[in-house]
Amino acid sequence: MKTLPAMSAVRLAPARRFLDVAVSLTLLLLLAPLLLLVALVVAATSGSPVLFRQQRVEAGGGTFTLLKFRSMRTDCAGPGVTGCADPRVTRTGRVLRRLSMDELPQLWNVLRGDMTLVGPRPEIPRLARRYPPRDRWVFRHRPGLTGPCALRSRGYAAELDGHTDPEEYYLTVLVPRRTALDAEFLRHATAGRVIAFTARTAVYVLSALWDREGRP
């Protein structure tokens, strides 16, 4: 189902798709014990469901079901973006988000072809429809598990705190920044740069262990 005006999807290069399958399948197999452990922790501390399923925009403007470990309470509504101090996030969820462990089930989305290893943020349809027209080109591209914006995610989340309308701040301030970074990567989205961004993401995630203030 289309959530945005019709647009042509940009085809993923065969080398990048090969990397997506090889890396996501390898990580799913290697991290299977960790995935099981996280699922048990979420179930024990937050109840069910363990997995959070949400519609996100795919390449070309349609939607797919994104998977995450649930990090927020199920009994409250709120904006479509999440700051560092969002009260909807559970205590376990804060740890998972800080270490990006809530994102691990998206390896399945990468393996399926809904997402790619490195690309733009997988956006929710409600916010995608409100993107500034000049930034909607990003929805022609397959969303990524990580990317240049992911390496600034803690800083971006901190910027949302304290705003009376975090969605408006996100759309008017952060989205143009994000799409500018995405454009720079997508101009030269080679397999080598995908590997480099994947490695940088691992370092960024591990840096959360010693960067207690969540600095970008």
How do the helices and strands line up, and which of them pair or pack?
Elements: H1 14-30, H2 32-46, E1 51-57, E2 63-69, H3 91-98, H4 106-112, E3 116-118, H5 125-128, E4 144-146, H6 153-160, H7 166-187, H8 191-207
Parallel strand pairs: 3-4
Antiparallel strand pairs: 1-2
Helix pairs in contact: 1-4
State the oligomer.
Answer: single chain
Give the strand order of the largest sheet, numbering strands 1, 2, ... along the chain. Answer: 1-2
Biggest sheet overview: 2 strands, antiparallel
Regions with little confidence, pLDDT below 50 for 5+ residues: none
Percent of residues in beta strands: 5-15%
Mean residue pLDDT? 90
Number of strands: 4
**SSE arrangement, N to C:** HHEEHHEHEHHH
Q: What structural class do you assign from the helix and strand content?
A: mainly alpha
Helix-residue proportion: 40-55%
- Return the domain count: 1
> Termini distance?
36 Å
Structural shape:
globular
Number of helices: 8
